[in-house]
Structure formats: structure tokens, C-alpha cells
């Protein structure tokens, strides 16, 4: 009998991978499930982006292997995007590496810097992939608490009390997923100083900056951040290109080079046409963000109404692609609560528990559902 690797004993199948099978089964049985669980944009990229891909198909080298570092003009486009939107200057040759989605960057960074037994600071609640990748590479998750009392921001004084001698990486991400907390440059400054003091690689996961957020920020805006920090970003949410798998890691040049050593042994470059589409997307001006946010704003208003119909208290300060809400008093299990709604009302909502123990008592709604569907969900709850 062929046995699996021991590393699989420390991870489970990704929640959405298994839960969406359950949802698909209900749909196959004729249940009209409204999926408000997963943050996969239902909107399309701009026509200019699609046209750029179509035109790229005719170029001579369109179907060949591509550079491990991406097209020079793609890296330049990413540098211009950061300069125009964050006032951050980056060297496109040494401080930017395109990725096939920022999620793969979590694995690449972990493989590049973590040895077995190293420790990793992970937000609770936070993106589950930080934990699963840490476990897969044999490192040890150390969770730091985020809570509503502290506006879902880490307490630096509490972090300083930890034994940090084995900590190699600290994951963070603002706007925060799943809560939508904005963060601040003051917080970023404190975290950069903390990372420098303890020789920790600080990694900011930043894919939600332009969704319903009037003040986009980058960790790399902080003076001296490049000494100890990397930032992940993605075109998935900003430009409705989730399935295209285009992301980037930016920052410290030596760290970028280390990540490239891993990445170049794991793929053979991003498809040429997708890179050309990404280059066009990165040229988008503020009217693009305004048009997208006009749609998301209407959806958020309706989704907040839905949450309130369920008796939940919405975290109103949140930005990004999700609505974070506290369960009604007396409800003890987020997972039981969402399953009841799924099976009785055919509405799928994400339980906060999948993001960590501090997610218990909360649920998350994605804004990736058309207005009429959210209105239909409201009717289902009220009827």
C-alpha cells in the first residue's frame, strides 16, 4: 500500500474545497443555493484587458515558455502601479517578482525562509493558508490575537512578551481578511520597527486595497520597510482577474532573489497572453476603481441589511470584498448557524471559525453576488 507523506497529517483539505462540494451537491439536487461564501469576483475585467489578451495571441512568441521573472514590461507596469497608487518606488529588475497568483507566494516565501522548527507569527483570525503552508514546510504556527476591541489590530506590547527567538516570519494583511479592518500607516510603522528589532521577515498580504477603500496603503510606504519586509499583491480582486492567477511579491531585493530560487524550480513562466492582459490592467486609472466600487457599495448596503435580518451586528468600519458580522446573542456555533441557513434557506455564508478561534461568533459574507440575488436572499430570510 502506498502511503502519503507525513506532512499531509498536519493539514486538512482547504475548507472551501470540501464545503463547495457540499454546495454543488445541493445544487445538483435542485436547491437554488445563493453562494455568498467565497470571494471570487463575478464581474469581468475591462474590455481593454480582454482585447490585449486576444491581440497577444498573434505575437510570434505567444505560445513559448516565458521568463521565470515575467516580461520586463509587466514588472515595469507593476512598479508604475505602486508608484502611481502608493507613492512607492521599486526597482522592476530586483524588487518585483510576478507570481501566478499571490497565494502561491505564501508557499514560495515559506520554502525560501523557513526551516523545520522555525516559528511563524500568524494572525487569529486570518487567512487559513498561512497556517497550512507553515505546517506543510515543518515550521510552527504561533498565533497572535486580533479582536474587535482593538479594531482587529495586533497589540505590539503583547507581541513583545512572546519568546521570539525562533520566529522567522510574521504574516499580516491590511485591509484585513476576513474582517475588513483598514489598518494604518502608524500600525505599519510599529510593525516594521518590531520586525527590525527581532530580525523577523514581515510579509503584508495586500490584495484588497482598492475595494471600497478610500485610502489604499502599502507596507512599503513605511521608511525602511524594504530592510525587513515583502508585500504580496494580486490582480484578482482589484481587476476581476481571479481565475487568471496574476500576483506579485515586492520589496527587499535579497528576499525577492531567494523567492525566485524557489519559484524557478516550480513553474516555467506565466502564459504570455495573461501577462499582456495584466500589463493593460495595471494601466487602469481611478475611473476603473470608481466604477467597481459603485457596484460593490450597493451590494454592501444590501448585504448589511441581510446580516441585520439574521440578527447579526455588522462591523461597519470594514472595507474590502467582505462583510464581517457578529452572530446574534445566544448563538454558540458559527458553523451550526451557517449550516442551518444553508439547508433551510439555501444561502451559503462563511463561518468565522475557518479563520481561527477568534472567528468564533462571527460570519463572513462575500460581495461577489449580484444585487438581485442579495435581495432574493433577504426575502428568503424574511419569509
TrEMBL record:
UniProt entry tagged with the keyword Chaperone: no
Class of this enzyme: transferase
InterPro entries, alphabetized: Aminotransferase_I/II_large (IPR004839), LL-DAP_aminotransferase (IPR050881), NHTrfase_class1_PyrdxlP-BS (IPR004838), PyrdxlP-dep_Trfase (IPR015424), PyrdxlP-dep_Trfase_major (IPR015421), PyrdxlP-dep_Trfase_small (IPR015422)
Recorded GO MF terms: pyridoxal phosphate binding; transaminase activity
UniProt-listed Pfam families: Aminotran_1_2 (PF00155)
Organism superkingdom: Bacteria
Reported cofactor(s): pyridoxal 5'-phosphate
Aminotransferase class I/classII large domain residues: 32-381
EC numbers, comma separated: 2.6.1.-
UniProt keywords, alphabetically: Aminotransferase, Transferase
Protein family membership: Belongs to the class-I pyridoxal-phosphate-dependent aminotransferase family.
PANTHER family: AMINO ACID AMINOTRANSFERASE, L-GLUTAMINE--4-(METHYLSULFANYL)-2-OXOBUTANOATE AMINOTRANSFERASE
Protein name: Aminotransferase
Amino acid at each position: 500500500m502506498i502511503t502519503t507523506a507525513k506532512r499531509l497529517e498536519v493539514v486538512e483539505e482547504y475548507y472551501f474545497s470540501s464545503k463547495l462540494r457540499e454546495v454543488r451537491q445541493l445544487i445538483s439536487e435542485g436547491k437554488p443555493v445563493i453562494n455568498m461564501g467565497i470571494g471570487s469576483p463575478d464581474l469581468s475585467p475591462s474590455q481593454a484587458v480582454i482585447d490585449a489578451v486576444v491581440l497577444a495571441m498573434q505575437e510570434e512568441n505567444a505560445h513559448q515558455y516565458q521568463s521565470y521573472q515575467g516580461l520586463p514590461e509587466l514588472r515595469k507596469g507593476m512598479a508604475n502601479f505602486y508608484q502611481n497608487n502608493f507613492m512607492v518606488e521599486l526597482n522592476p529588475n530586483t524588487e518585483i517578482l510576478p507570481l501566478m497568483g499571490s497565494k502561491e507566494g505564501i508557499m514560495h516565501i515559506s520554502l525560501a525562509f523557513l526551516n523545520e522548527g522555525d516559528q511563524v507569527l500568524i494572525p487569529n483570525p486570518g487567512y487559513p493558508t498561512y497556517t497550512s503552508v507553515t505546517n506543510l514546510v515543518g515550521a510552527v504556527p504561533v498565533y497572535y490575537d486580533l479582536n474587535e476591541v482593538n479594531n482587529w489590530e495586533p497589540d505590539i506590547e503583547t507581541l513583545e512578551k512572546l519568546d521570539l527567538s525562533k520566529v522567522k516570519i510574521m504574516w499580516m494583511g491590511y485591509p484585513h481578511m476576513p474582517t475588513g479592518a483598514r489598518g494604518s500607516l502608524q500600525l505599519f510603522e510599529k510593525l516594521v520597527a518590531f520586525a527590525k528589532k527581532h530580525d523577523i521577515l514581515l510579509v503584508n498580504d495586500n490584495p484588497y486595497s482598492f475595494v471600497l477603500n478610500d485610502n489604499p496603503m502599502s507596507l512599503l510606504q513605511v521608511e525602511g520597510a524594504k530592510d525587513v519586509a515583502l508585500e504580496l499583491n494580486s490582480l484578482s480582486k482589484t481587476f476581476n482577474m481571479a481565475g487568471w492567477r496574476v500576483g506579485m511579491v515586492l520589496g527587499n531585493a535579497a528576499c525577492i532573489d531567494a523567492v525566485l530560487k524557489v519559484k524557478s524550480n516550480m513553474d516555467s513562466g506565466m502564459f504570455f497572453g495573461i501577462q499582456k492582459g495584466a500589463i493593460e490592467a495595471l494601466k487602469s486609472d481611478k475611473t476603473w476603481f470608481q466604477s467597481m466600487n459603485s457596484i460593490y457599495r450597493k451590494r454592501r448596503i444590501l448585504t448589511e441589511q441581510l446580516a441585520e435580518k439574521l440578527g447579526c451586528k455588522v462591523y461597519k468600519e470594514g472595507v474590502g470584498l467582505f462583510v464581517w458580522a457578529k452572530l446574534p446573542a445566544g448563538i454558540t456555533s458559527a458553523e451550526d448557524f451557517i449550516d442551518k441557513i444553508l439547508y433551510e434557506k439555501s444561502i451559503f455564508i462563511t463561518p468565522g471559525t475557518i479563520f481561527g478561534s477568534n472567528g468564533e461568533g462571527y460570519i463572513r459574507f462575500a460581495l461577489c453576488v449580484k444585487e438581485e440575488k442579495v435581495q432574493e436572499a433577504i426575502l428568503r430570510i424574511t419569509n
